[in-house]
């Protein structure tokens, strides 16, 4: 039986994408060849790459606005350093809202001055800082839209005349935003887009070419753009599977349609966390993420019973991250509301039993 998979990433993807992707491993486009054995320069694969790039732009509403799309390797973690390598000349601002932002800060410091414009580290990142002042003269301002570990999400993005860079690894394609506010967006594929192994980078071309340092080719956005994201062998299977997920999302009605579903799922779990006296939420209410709900048992003595109950109900992946503890229910785009209801049922069953 298929489990209700609440894993934080890698995570659930649409079942039909799994089916189509596995078929392509056996026989891609009725070619008599596997997607894994054809040249990345073959027309069939170049078409996949082009469709993936154009679907990403279309879904984000960024067509014709000077953006380029890349599918790179090295995970979102490589983007922590690539952004700074390509764009940090003197000083950059960072909003520190979680362990991933913190890692981005650490990498950027190798390349120049980093100003932590705001941080919620003082409260183990359970909120999104607000009302901070952004200094003038930044090369860019970096933020993390959704904090996967802590379950917080930025609802109002900062306004600045510096280019805005955003790590959207765990909520890309999940909610409508004015994506043209961002000069660079990056996201590891392994949440809302595809398997681990590729990272989406959407970049406004005119922010490049402003720094003096030499950049090694593999870390140079300009090089990847000039080669159509095919400077070297791309991660063919992750790109193909991401393309299938983006097709799935488009067919469903795009980000507007999935946002409605995501809001319903989030409402369901958060109202249970609020109403059930056995549980408490971790993130500040106004900053709660629609993708990752973090919560814990008020009485830890119930842990063994609760853990046995959710496992029995076919639920997977709800253990919280070690830096927060408790539980984390990740409800990415492909998760159905029925799966969230299954978890909520277990939570209310526990209340009846306790
Ligand atoms: N940023 C965020 C918000 C993440 O959730 C993660 C991974 N879960 C990363 C960055 C790091 O991604 P990767 O493992 O692809 O380097």
Any overview of this molecule?
Its main location: cytoplasm. L-glutamate binds at residue 41. The modification N6-(pyridoxal phosphate)lysine is found at residue 191. This protein is of the alpha/beta class and 354 residues long. It folds into two domains: 15-252, Aspartate Aminotransferase, domain 2; 254-353, Aspartate Aminotransferase, domain 1. Helix content is 35%, strand content 17%. It has nine helices and 14 strands. It has helices spanning 15-26, 43-60, 75-87, 99-108, 221-226, 236-252, 254-275, 303-312, 337-353, and strands spanning 4-5, 67-72, 91-96, 113-119, 141-144, 146-147, 152-153, 164-167, 184-188, 199-204, 279-281, 292-297, 315-316, 327-330. The strands form four sheets. It has a seven-stranded mixed β-sheet, sandwiched between helices. The two termini are 28 Å apart. The mean pLDDT is 98. The chain binds 4'-deoxy-4'-aminopyridoxal-5'-phosphate. 4'-deoxy-4'-aminopyridoxal-5'-phosphate (PMP) binds next to helix 3.
